[in-house]
Amino acid sequence: MKNVRATVRRFIAQRLELGTELDFLNRETRQVLFVFGLSFIGALTLTGFGITYILNGRPERALIDFAFTLLAMANLAYLRRLKNVIAASNFILCLMLVLTAFLLVSGGLHDTGFLWLFTIPILAFFLQGLSRGVWWVVATLVIIQTIGLLGAAGWLDIPYAEEQMEQVFVGLTVVSAMLGLFELVTERYEEELLVKDRELEKFKQAVDATTDGIVMTDVEANIIYVNPAWERLTGYSASQALGQNPRILQSGKTDPAEHQRLWQNLAAGLPFKSEKIINRRRDGSEYTAELQIFPVRLDGKNIFYVGLQEDISERVRLDAAKTEFVSLASHQLTTPLSAIAWFTELLMDNTAGPLPPKQRSIIGKIQLSNERMITLVTALLNTSRIDLGTFEVAPILTDLPKLIRQVVREVRATGPTPRIIVDLDVSLPPILLDQNLMTIIVQNLITNAVRYTPRSGRVTVRLQAQRNVLILQVADTGIGIAEHDRQQMFTKMFRSRAAQAMSPNGNGLGLYIVKAIVEQSGGSISFTSKPKIGTTFTVKLPRSGMRAKAGSRALSA
To answer: Three-state secondary structure along 498-528?
Structure first.
């Protein structure tokens, strides 16, 4: 059936020289086809009548029909050559007005024949629109009224009573008014559609011109649109992709957890973003994609999805090289920094002889600066191992309340701190945890809370269990986090202005490391905060503990 329709469209388009594609939603196209059809059918009908009259021995009537046939054929040729709908439809409407006058005078509109009159306003408004159609309707009404008046005055012998002519006039007026109102509404609606169509075309041009690969799918994940950038990126043409599922790009090397997170987000009506998608092009080559998927919703339900992806393979390669360099450089710095720490400690212990107060003060500053450098190098090493995915997770049965108390004691030992309140569920049994990684989590959260809380403030550490989840909360009454900084709190090297003003020596890596460890352990981290009132960080871990993971190096606490 589709092939038949396509063949008919091509045939009509070629005959009318309209091109190979016909848009039947276009008003002008419909008008051209309608005039074409009227002229063609009229010519065939009149030819048939002419032949019938000749066979019946009435050649004079046949000549009239043939004359009208020639006019219809001329109209067809005119339409085909100039594609002027207005001129071609003018002929048809003029012909209908002449026939109307002839039929009224000769009595050819008896009974249902009066319906002929109502086709004139229909054709007038349809073919020529509201502005020109009104004039044809007025001309029809003038002809009817004139014939009616001439008949009523006795100047013209017509086989209709005056009441019949009045009824025809009134009926045609009412129908014309209704059709005119409908045409007015239709034209305004079409104007709105035209404006929207132009806006949609501009949007499509913008989407087609973007350098990001864009794909749209229905709720069943069947591809319904791809832009040229997506075709270039994947190697699939639009015709090859339409109707397919985006899984045609799967390489099998993407972490299944990413796909699981993708569908969880979309099912909840949330956008999804990842830089860990490894796709395969049509030619078999692989690339790392930055993928964003946005669900488009209506009445609380997803109706389709829009996906954007970009090839970030080169960026990933450069980041990996940079991370590896940082890891190597940090590792090489560890040995001399440890030596400096050892030698300064010997000097401070008077192993090499007593030091004068001034020298002891200077060496103390060297020792403090070296400790800060060691902390930074340790953080850089941990960050590089996290980014490279080379850190190990080795869980053992751990008394978590005891570990937290140990960290609190170490923090208090560093110097004056705000009041630290510990509220721990001591009934918890030992849990499978990597003690080193758990120490990093607790240490960073408590250290940050202490660092950004005034001495007169308070830090509260809570640990409790709820069903299958362990909940660790560290709350403070410190400087808080401004609204515009919250999206970046777990970003590598980020420190807010308020944090920098209160403690210039931070490195902005602690929360990034904590988040990576927590998520690797199957948990989550979040926070609530109010500026100048305080912040509460909440870590949720599976009560079953951390998952073991092989790696080349452990993270350093």
So the answer is: HHHHHCCCCCCCHHHHHHHHHHHCCCEEEEE
